[in-house]
Write a structure and sequence with these properties.
The chain is built from nine helices and two strands. It is mainly alpha-helical. The protein folds into two domains: about 1-55, no CATH class; about 60-180, Arc Repressor Mutant, subunit A, CATH 1.10.10. The chain has a two-stranded antiparallel sheet. Helix 3 packs parallel to helix 6 (about 110-130). It is elongated and about 55 Å long. Residues about 185-190 have low confidence and may be disordered.
Length: about 190
Amino acid sequence: MVSNRCKMVVKEELKKLGLHFIMVDLGEVEILEQITAEQRAQLKTDLFNAGLELMDDKKGILIEKIKNAIIEMVHHTDEMINKKFSNYLSEKLNHDYTYLANLFSEVQGTTIEQFVIGHKVERIKELIIYGELNMTEIAWKMNYSSVAHLSNQFKKVTGLSPSHFKQLKGKRRSPIEEIGQPNLPSTQTL
């Protein structure tokens, strides 16, 4: 789940099945009752029909937790984490970073670093479009060492300088769900 809309859909589907949840968060659900095989199958079908997917395998769930940690850090916090990202991710998910990085690369076909960069660039686009911060403030907010570093990375990903992007009339941004996803299918991952 990568949005509040996804969380609302999951809550509604759980209610329809008479299941009481303690918590519905990005990529995780905690239910009070034991879920029966029939309820699980129905939930899987209902979520799929809503464009979501119920994940069963532990590696897939861990990949989603990695993605959600990145999305939360880049898109949903006011300031970037000021510690080394590998340490942040290891502590948050309670796994060795090398294991997480290897698993992510194997399953996703891209590195965690590239996934982070893709999300940071989309967030930078958003901040540029809003026009509330100058480039120095955006670089600081996104934890870049300088505006030059931000500009170089932005140009590598988009082919445009941030100033050229700002001048474009049709500023196209990518939905969060599509960043770092080669040929994304129509369903979201839960």
